[in-house]
Specification:
Elements lengths: L3 H7 L1 H12 L3 H29 L2 H17 L7 H15 L5 H10 L4 H53 L11 H4 L4 H5 L2 H30 L4 H26 L4 H21 L3 H30 L4 H30 L3 H18 L24
Helix pairs in contact: 1-7, 2-3, 2-7, 2-10, 3-5, 3-14, 4-5, 4-7, 6-7, 6-13, 7-11, 7-13, 10-11, 10-13, 10-14, 10-15, 11-13, 12-13, 12-15, 13-14, 14-15
């Protein structure tokens, strides 16, 4: 609920207009804050992944939660300058690297095999809860205490929710040398030389770029059209609820259906969702679009973790996930930036949305070339490859 996505990404739509008024700047400049934060996260996530592989999950997560919360609180001290604010967002992105889904996916994937997909879906549904709740909380806080105190309140929420959960409930998976499942798999360099690795990087970069871009700007899209801010925020909330549903659906399907087919389905759902915004910006259409995109967001992290475990094994899961999640984070930042740039330069979001659509079609083509799993579930070997294909 209080990982980097809900806090850095989903809260930002409610903050764009107050921040623009404070710093007297345009949305493209402000949206670059998300790009800077997620780029910083992308740079440091592989490092976090290596730490998780070497020292375990909890020793990385607990200090990361504390530092992440402090970095959020520091945003309340931003000088009255857009560039100072952007600097603080970059610092936030660095400490967010340890509070991504990476360590939690490592814990769950390392403890489950036959029902790994469902286990990932259920556990990662917390991101959906955060995506549904955090924007509403953010909007209410902005109205009552202003944007600076909103960041202080979000910092308290991150620590109060995240630290006790990680300390008391998180299970440490077996590490290399303590179980056959964890020893099985490719090394990070070996994985990086495979075509599946780079196909997955491009697929998930384009998926998250489209989803994050639309979600970050759906509130200003609606308020520009005259919709009440609270009602506009409910569109983001509907995306969060759809994200939860997407998590559970994809988790169930991954244990039943060849994962690239599941990936293809959700790519098409996202493509349909962003297409709706080209038809109309009415509240009903926006909610439908947000729900489609939320379903896609609900699938992304689970799909990424599952596909890594099946194509590359568990031996270097944290490191490989870290590299791929770096691309994922770049997409999280690039999507909102492209939307803001499109609006600032053309007065419309249409150019960015068209770019997302083209990227998604490229991702669809790449899905067909992934081929069979290298490391199928021991009890579900028949799912490894429904059709002959070369690895």
């Amino acid at each position: 609920m209080v990982s980097n996505g809900p806090i850095v990404q989903f809260s930002f739509g409610s903050l764009i207009k107050p921040l623009a008024d404070e710093f007297e700047t345009d949305r493209a400049t402000l949206s670059s804050a998300v790009l800077i934060a997620f780029t910083a996260t992308a740079i440091f996530t592989p490092f976090a992944g290596r730490l998780v592989d070497r020292f375990g999950v909890r020793p990385v997560v607990l200090p990361a939660i504390v530092l992440f919360a402090l970095a959020i609180a520091a945003l309340s001290l931003s000088p009255s300058s857009a560039y100072g604010f952007l600097f603080f967002y970059g610092v936030l992105g660095i400490f967010a690297a340890g509070q991504t889904p990476l360590p939690y996916a490592k814990s769950v994937a390392g403890c489950f095999d036959a029902k790994r997909g469902l286990a990932l879906g259920i556990s990662m549904a917390g991101v959906g809860l955060g995506a549904a709740i955090i924007p509403q909380v953010t909007q209410a806080l902005i109205t009552s205490v202003g944007w600076r105190n909103t960041y202080l309140a979000l910092a308290v929420i991150v620590f109060a929710v995240g630290f006790p959960a990680a300390l008391l409930l998180l299970k440490e998976p077996a590490r290399a040398g303590t179980g056959p499942l964890q020893l099985e798999g490719l090394g990070a360099q070996e994985a990086a030389h495979s075509r599946q690795f780079w196909s997955l990087v491009i697929i998930f970069l384009t998926m998250v770029m489209a989803c994050a871009g639309v979600i970050a700007h759906i509130v200003p899209i609606l308020t520009d059209a005259g919709v009440n801010p609270q009602l506009a925020t409910s569109a983001v909330g509907s995306a969060g609820l759809a994200l939860i549903i997407g998590r559970l659906i994809v988790g169930y399907l991954l244990d039943k259906i060849f994962a690239p087919y599941v990936t293809l389905f959700f790519l098409l759902v996202i493509l349909f969702g962003i297409g709706l915004l080209q038809i109309s910006t009415s509240p009903m259409t926006a909610v439908m679009s947000a729900m489609c995109i939320g379903l896609g967001l609900g699938a992304e992290i689970d799909l990424l973790a599952y596909l890594i475990s099946r194509y590359f094994g568990m031996r270097s899961f944290g490191t490989i996930y870290g590299y791929m999640f770096a691309a994922f984070n770049i997409g999280c930042g690039l999507g909102p930036f492209l939307m803001g740039l499109s609006q600032s330069q053309t007065g419309s979001y249409g150019t960015a949305i068209l770019t997302f659509a083209v990227g998604l079609m490229v991702a669809v083509a790449l899905v067909f070339g992934l081929g069979p799993y290298r490391y199928a579930s021991a009890s579900k070997v028949e799912l490894a490859s429904p059709v002959p294909a070369s690895v």
